[in-house]
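B., you asked whether I could sanity-check this one before it goes into the benchmark set. Here's the sequence:
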Amino acid sequence: MRSCKIVPLNDIEEFKTKLLVWAQQFKHVVWLDSNNETATDKNLNLSEFDAALAVGAETLLECNHQNAFDKLKTYHKSTQDFIFGYLGYDLKNDTEQLSSANYDGLEFNDLTFFQPKKLFLIKNSQVEIKYLNTYSDEIESDLNAILNVVLEHTPNQQSNKIKIKLRIHKDEYFNKVNAILAHIKRGDIYEVSFCQEFYAENAIINPVDVYSKLNKISTPPFATFLKIDKKYLLSASPERFLKRNKNTVISQPIKGTVKRGDSEEEDDVLKNILKNDVKERAENIMIVDLVRNDLAKTAIKGTVKVSELCEVYTFKQVHQLISTVVSETESATNSVDIIKSLFPMGSMTGAPKIAAMNIIEELEETKRSLFSGAVGYISAEGNFDFNVIIRSILYNSSNKYVSYSVGGAITAKSIPEKEYEECLLKARAMRDVLLNSN
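And here's what the prediction gave me:
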């Protein structure tokens, strides 16, 4: 079904940069990059490849939330091939009796997947080029075109005019957090991932340039550039949602954040503070319990294990607490069923999940769209890997709307002022990139 060619690479980073520039001629693009040289932390670097590019839609599935997972299951079965795409947060309305009525300036479909005409898988010091047989005669000419891409700096002349606005202002944010704390005090929920949107209207950006700068600032293990016609996701995500490798399923929720220090000594102090922070650990452990319960729905009985609890991982801008939960599933268990049973991810909803999602819909001001959804792939064999869409910029070039959202877990010990400060810390990279793109 696919013709393959393996090519050794002398300068992997240059090839990756040229590959992404070359890809912009296509309407459908998914670029996944583990930033392999910097993603050396313990168990995050479990990807099947270091980077992947899928371009050109041979077949395409786009839909809203209604029966979306069933449609995805049928679509994957019909292609019997790699499919790449995203799961929007509002697929929650397919998994539960929920609704979404908040403002949406981005206008993404709830779900989009495509079977790529052309696929590039980078591993170690080589790229495996896998084209559908129909396009196999284009491999050599495409490779030549990629190698001859001229890399030029194209400053974004509009970037200094971008005016970032807050959808929820500071005092209103405090009121909403206090409303969540009242829910917690009444026993309605234990934890809610409450998020707020920052946005800009009449904004013109260069998506490749903005993505490249965001990725350089953060070098995360789950970076993504996604293009669906005129809509873009530029993601510097540090978090894996879910991975399947044969019969093993892995989830790695993040909860707990502290800034980086100005020195190695200060970093060590801050990591120790985070590791032993009662509130941050409680946030993480609550979500681990939720993930364990969700994984158990499709796991072989007795196989759900927490292999790593509240471990400190270091990124360029923050330290974070990450846990790793693993299960074993039967070979016959459908991959889409596994994804559906855990979606949306607990780290971006709260516990209990349904009650938390109702409160999110009530108190947040905008539809989350792709934010706190997932992007990734499912292979022909049913293996998959998906990130959590956080630390991301979303852009609709048709209506010139730019958006990024950030949030944090609200628990009984939350202090509204500190939660607000954490949001600003998480938002810093996106804000800096958008305001300084020249």
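One thing to flag: The longest strand covers residues 51-63. Otherwise nothing jumped out at me.
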